[in-house]
């Protein structure tokens, strides 16, 4: 079992900051990758950032490079997304995901319930 609990969503002013966190609880699973997607009305769902848990290698969407930072705590199976210099275009529902596997099987993606981020001018 893999459960993802998100926190830190809410409202911020343009130019402000928010920090999202996602904590994974597992029973008999290893988590290999964690990250965040977002979806805004009328927009394609977008991979915002992800991190490989073993070596810390990161990926960022071009739209957030230089503003967002993803980090992980392997001991706690937790990732955080520090979002600075927020823009109105960052308004979206954000979904945490984790790629996890067990017993040599092909890993499977697990998803959190989502958290809303609203950026106002």
List its traits.
121 residues; mainly beta; four-stranded antiparallel beta sheet; 11 strands; 0% helix
Would you give an account of this structure?
The protein has no helices and eleven strands. The protein has 121 residues and is mainly β. The chain starts with a strand and ends with a strand.
Give a brief description.
The protein is mainly beta and 121 residues long. Helix content is 0%, strand content 59%. It has strands at 2-7, 10-13, 18-26, 30-39, 46-52, 58-60, 68-73, 78-83, 92-101, 108-111, 115-120.
Q: How many β strands by DSSP?
A: 11
Mean pLDDT: 95
Please count the helical segments: 0
Major sheet attributes: 7 strands, mixed
Taking pLDDT < 50 over at least 5 consecutive residues as the criterion, the unreliable ranges are: none
Silhouette: elongated
Strand content: over 45%
Radius of gyration: 14 Å
Spatial separation of the terminal alpha carbons:
41 Å
Structural class from helices and strands? mainly beta
What sequence of helices (H) and strands (E) makes up the elements? EEEEEEEEEEE
Helix proportion: under 10%
